[in-house]
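Here is a typical sample entry:
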Amino acid sequence: MAIVSVEERIVFVGLARVTDGALLASIFVDSKMASQEKQQFERQFLQACQAQRGITNPDFRTRTTLEYPCQGNMFVMAGRDLSSHCLYSIGIRDSAYPERLAYACLGEVLERVHMTQGDSLHHLSSLSLTKPLKKPIREIIKRYQLADRDKTFEVQGKVEELKENMQDNVRRILETHHNLENLEQRTDNMSRQADQFLKQSVDLRRAIQWRNMKLKMIMAGMAGAFLLYIVAMVAG
């Protein structure tokens, strides 16, 4: 197998519509790539589309190992907004290429597609975007070929990582605050229920005491009446 230079690590970008499995764009950096290898890239991408069964999850991302005669990895992610019914794919011959940069590259491809195609993605025919997108996407790919060795990209990556961590922390804080509010509300409810229970207990105790007192008064009255009856009998 021929040695691949670092300038040719990213070799394929694809765009497909999940709803009907149409491959809208199939762009290769090297136009002289063997047809067998090109077909394998497209085949694996379409298999990922078919696995979605016509439905896309906006958070969907996956990485698969390229099969012979290809080598390296293929990254696939779901589109969003105007292309929420599509999948984007990037084929990279270097298995050590950072996953973060692969998805960042696809993110730029997505933005380019939205800028140039708008909402036409719903009705375009197969491979109709290959020609109009070939030049702009190749320019994007060119910047990402050596991105993992570019200090600017490295700093941007760290900034993005920091941003994601901050967003996660904010989300956790909000969730904690929400949980505390729920806990406080449940505590208040339990306190009110406890107060109500105590009040009901006092009322019940008083009711029992009053009932016992009435029973004692009735028993005393009956005993007095019986005693008067006995006295009357003796006197008579």
